[in-house]
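Researcher: Structure prediction, please.
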Amino acid sequence: MYTIADIKVELLNPEEVKNFIRNHGIFACQCYNTPEKYAERVGLSCLKEGHTSGSRADMFKFRIHAPRYTCDQIMRHSVGTAINCQSQRYVAMDDNFEIYAPPYVMNDEVLKTLYEVYEKKCKNYYKIMRVEFDSRGITGEKANDLMRTMLPIGVACNLTMGFTIEALMNFMGKRLCARADEPIRQVARLMKEAVLAVEPRYGEFLVPQCERLMYCPEKHSCGGYPSREEIDDLITCGYLYRELLKTYEENLPLLEDELECIDEELDLYWLEEKQIRKGEK
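Model: Predicted structure follows.
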């Protein structure tokens, strides 16, 4: 068996990544005929402002070792990516047969033992089927192809994948989320660590989507950030408060009782606003 600690990520092109922001700037300098000596500054500015079209010639390339079902989840990110996944047809799994055990299982001796027994039985049946296919003259790729249907979804898998910065930001936005499946969240953490080790300036962009949006778009939020509706309410509340303060602009500095009066009026305005939203008025 293998655990979450055995999930591995390697950045394959660290030296290239060091130059990505400058490369981005070289592309973008064309737009305003900006001298190339400012490429680094232009690239960083474009990145901060979300003008990423000039970055698409470069890819962050990773080698990932994770459960097969996690690799399947990763490969759903198909826009702005390049993907090659280990084949279970061309690669015999006889000596590469481990099943992923989640942290909860590893912390429970009974469950851990059951997983170990199951893994051993799967390996034994795989070997038995190999012998049976061999006896029928079916070997190599053909046998692997017929036998891969027996493999558990948690079997270890290797994946190489490239991401543009847009695709990587989108991946991090979804997969660093507290609600993401733990193995893919671990992959995202390791990918981010690998990138920041060679180019720390990407740190502010490789974050959960709530950190970038300043609200949580998920239906079932972890509570770390307010919802979009809550943000709208705060903005509306601030707008109403500003409008009420304008009515007192010509007065002397506000006394405590006048502030209380504003608060009362704000409560009335807010109640009326919510009634309008609900269609009660």
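Model: The beta strands are 8-11, 60-67, 81-85, 156-163.
Researcher: Thanks, that helps.
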